[in-house]
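dumping this here so i dont lose it
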């Protein structure tokens, strides 16, 4: 039966982790996957996460099954982190949240939920977007189309074209995938005014946003980075949010995420949750417990929560410092490209305007790793390697 199977290429992002590990060059720099690294180049476990894990494990008495929805206390904590404690849609019980294996798991449930609700619905994705978005929605046989978002040449958001495309081509009942903050791969985010304008169009056209929130806390702050989600949840009848604790809790391999669905009323929400549980049961049964227990242990204790917020802010500040220094160094070291756009973007990623030959040269001649699109993750830069990286990037541009 397996003779017909084709050999597929490696994952364009996660395969870089293995390739980087195997490189023996002591000068190597990892600008590939979105994994936070500290000044020493280590992907750390946050101190608050380590402490919460220790507490949870020392108090754990059983490893019996949890429910399909995961840990209900975690679900409560995480939806308050996403929507804010006093959000009117939470108070009206119009939002339901279940735990998922990472945000990929949440997006998978979202795709299957859309397929069950409206199989003719098309999903609109930003051009460009995270590669895996296409694969996840294709797995549910959802038709996809791209809306213009980021002009790689000009390094800016093409908001007018985004609105025009959705206004002219999207149909009522279609879904629109948005990035809550720190757009992956461009780092170019919608302004509060653009979120409001987009919300008006989504309402007028009867579209359903699916918001991927994987980097809350890495653009401005935990509160500000939720602006778009909270505004949309206040003004729209329906919305899906898939959130991740991989980055802001450094829980990557613990697969800790959530899906929240906003609908018109709590009765509809019960049906939606029953569908999500059925989809999850047929796929992974129950989500892994460890990460969610760590997150709730932190969020339910005021002192731990404040300490965690400070750690998120430290990660954000370090990335901002690396972004600023790389932009300044590239401005000084070459004249071909104006890199000041990097300072207007947020989070772990931005594009460098490099072609395939330049990206290959960086990898083969300098052991500098990045995604083939030219997306870099600032996470792998440190004060020790930033001169080397900037010199190499400037050299291939010249
Ligand atoms: C990334 O975009 O680098 C991260 O979200 C890791 C992944 O799963 O692709």
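and the seq i came up w/
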């Amino acid at each position: 039966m397996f003779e017909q199977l084709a050999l597929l290429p490696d994952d364009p992002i996660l395969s870089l982790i293995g390739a980087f590990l195997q490189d023996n060059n002591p000068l190597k720099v990892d600008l590939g996957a979105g994994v936070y690294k500290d000044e020493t180049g280590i992907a750390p476990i946050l101190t608050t996460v380590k402490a919460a894990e220790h507490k949870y494990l020392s108090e754990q008495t059983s490893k019996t099954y949890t429910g399909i929805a995961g840990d209900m206390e975690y679900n409560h904590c995480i939806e308050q982190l996403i929507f804010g404690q006093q959000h009117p849609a939470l108070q009206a019980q119009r939002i339901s949240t279940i735990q998922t294996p990472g945000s990929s798991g949440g997006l998978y449930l979202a795709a299957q939920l859309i397929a069950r609700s409206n199989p003719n619905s098309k999903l609109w994705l930003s051009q460009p977007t995270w590669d895996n978005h296409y694969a996840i929605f294709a797995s549910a046989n959802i038709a996809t189309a791209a809306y213009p978002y980021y002009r790689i040449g000009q390094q800016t958001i093409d908001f007018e074209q985004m609105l025009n495309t959705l206004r002219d081509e999207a149909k009522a009942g279609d879904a629109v995938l948005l990035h809550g903050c720190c757009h992956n791969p461009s780092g170019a985010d919608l302004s509060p005014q653009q979120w409001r304008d987009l919300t008006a169009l989504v309402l007028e056209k009867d579209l359903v946003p699916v918001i991927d929130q994987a980097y809350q806390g890495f653009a401005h702050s935990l509160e500000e980075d939720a602006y778009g989600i909270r505004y949309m949840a206040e003004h729209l009848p329906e919305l899906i949010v898939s959130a991740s604790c991989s980055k802001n809790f450094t829980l990557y391999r613990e697969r800790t995420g959530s899906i929240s669905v906003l609908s018109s009323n709590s009765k509809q929400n019960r049906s939606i949750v029953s569908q999500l549980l059925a989809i999850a049961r047929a796929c992974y049964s129950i989500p892994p417990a460890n990460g969610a227990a760590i997150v709730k242990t932190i969020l339910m204790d005021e002192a731990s929560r404040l300490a965690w917020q400070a750690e998120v802010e430290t990660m954000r500040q370090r990335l901002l410092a690396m972004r600023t220094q790389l932009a300044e160094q590239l401005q000084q070291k070459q004249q071909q490209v104006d890199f000041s756009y990097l300072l207007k973007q947020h989070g772990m990623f931005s594009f460098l305007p490099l072609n395939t030959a330049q990206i290959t040269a960086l990898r083969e001649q300098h052991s500098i790793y990045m995604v083939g699109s030219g997306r870099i993750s600032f996470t792998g830069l440190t004060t020790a390697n930033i001169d080397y990286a900037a010199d190499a990037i400037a050299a291939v541009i010249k």
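The first helix runs from residue 15 to 22.
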